Amino acid sequence: MKILVTGGTGYIGSHTVVELQNKGFDVVIVDNLSNSKIEVVDKIEKITGKRPEIEVFDLVDREKTSGFFKRHNDINGVIHFAAYKAVGESVEKPLKYYRNNLVSLLNILESMIETGVENLVFSSSCTVYGQPDELPVSEKAPIKKAESPYGNTKQISEEIIQDTVKVEPVKAIALRYFNPIGAHESALIGELPLGVPNNLVPFITQTAVGIRDELKVFGDDYNTPDGTAIRDYIHVVDLAKAHVVAIDRMINNKMKDKFEVFNLGTGNGYSVLDVIKSFEKVSGVKLNYRIVGRRPGDVEKVWANPEFSNKELGWKAEKGLDEMMESAWKWQLELQKEQNNQ
Ligand code: UD1
């Protein structure tokens, strides 16, 4: 079985390639390396003992995408990660986000139909729920108006896929991620944000090693026990494993509908201060942080109801917050070592 993983050198993509190969799948990656490095392929080979194929091009290019699918006529399924994901930047440059995230999806769907590839797993986000009225949030919760162009691309993508599966011989699973953090236990792959990180955990670990002066905690006046915002953090390896289950489900015809949606979260909500405390505990490093005002567009609290995923997929996130922070820290220290050796 051969799976195309778009964005396979990225953060979640690379961990998923590892899990797919561990389960015996062949993988071909397509990535334009706009936010990742080609060396990730060496690391994947080191972990799994198997080198995934890779082609470097932009899926926004219709001709190249179509040509790729025609050449690789033995693909059984596609896991589509490749997308831009910085919320703030999407507000500044909406068209960049709409073009990249939507045109690549259109090209992939058209090429799949052209070449008879039937199975698509799509990277979606809990951002589609906005601030849910009820917590924990289940897949049945209404989709709220997106807070950012990035969030809107996820909503529109799900709609495009849903309309397509109604009339074409394609089926799809949208996986709505909560907050993926942590890194592979080998510390060979992990999150590698280029420039200043937007997300909490890379900012914490970079502050701890002195790359950043301080962590700004965005708001302590939320309606939560300690006043800071709450999220459902999930270990990236747990998340990656869910993709293998989803692909299996499609290939083995276990889907109950041509379009299915699953929450990928742990069901536990942690505040920003909880995350900091866990980091300090596992690393033994005192973090320099300061409370500042809220970040525009942030929701107050969101965590998953993972029951449907647990039951239907037979998948469950296993790793706890301390384990997540420990692996993120180990990865940061490994990066420092690499840099010092250069
Ligand atoms: C955001 C997006 C989510 C997207 C994900 C991808 C929103 C509401 N959510 O998740 O849709 O899929 O990024 O990258 O935009 N924080 C700090 N200081 C920092 C950084 C973060 O206090 O320097 C806080 C945030 O306010 C938030 C929490 O940490 O409460 C997590 O933030 P982050 O890691 O950026 O993820 P989300 O905003 O939840």
What do these coordinates show?
This protein has 342 residues and is an alpha/beta fold. It folds into two domains: 2-182 and 232-264, Rossmann fold (3-Layer(aba) Sandwich), CATH 3.40.50.720; 200-230 and 268-301 and 319-341, UDP-galactose 4-epimerase, domain 1 (Alpha-Beta Complex). The chain has helices at 11-22, 40-48, 62-71, 87-92, 94-115, 149-167, 200-208, 236-251, 272-283, 307-313, 321-341; strands spanning 2-6, 26-31, 53-56, 77-80, 119-125, 171-177, 179-181, 215-218, 230-231, 233-235, 259-264, 270-271, 289-292. Helix 2 (40-48) links the parallel strand 2 and strand 3. Helix 3 runs parallel beside helix 5 and helix 5 runs parallel beside helix 6 (149-167). The longest helix is centred in the N-terminal third of the chain and has 22 residues, at 94-115. The radius of gyration is 19 Å and the shape is globular. The relative contact order is 0.14. Uridine-diphosphate-N-acetylglucosamine binds at residues 85, 87, 125, 127, 151, 179, 198-200, 203, 215-218, 229, 231, 272, 295, 297-299.
- How many runs of DSSP E, i.e. beta strands? 13
Low-confidence stretches: none
Bound molecules: uridine-diphosphate-N-acetylglucosamine
Order the strands across the largest sheet as they lie in space.
3-2-1-4-5-6-11
Secondary structure class reads alpha/beta
Supply the number of structural domains.
2
Mean pLDDT: 97
Shape: globular
Q: Largest sheet, if any?
A: 7 strands, parallel
Q: Strand-residue fraction? A: 15-25%
Q: What is the helix tally?
A: 11
**Radius of gyration over C-alpha positions, nearest whole angstrom:** 19 Å
CATH architecture of the largest domain: 3-Layer(aba) Sandwich
Helix content: 40-55%
Termini distance? 39 Å
> What is the CATH C-level name of the largest domain?
Alpha Beta
**CATH topology tier name of the largest domain:** Rossmann fold
In N-to-C order, the SSE pattern is: EHEHEHEHHEHEEHEEEHEEHEHH
CATH superfamily of the largest domain: NAD(P)-binding Rossmann-like Domain
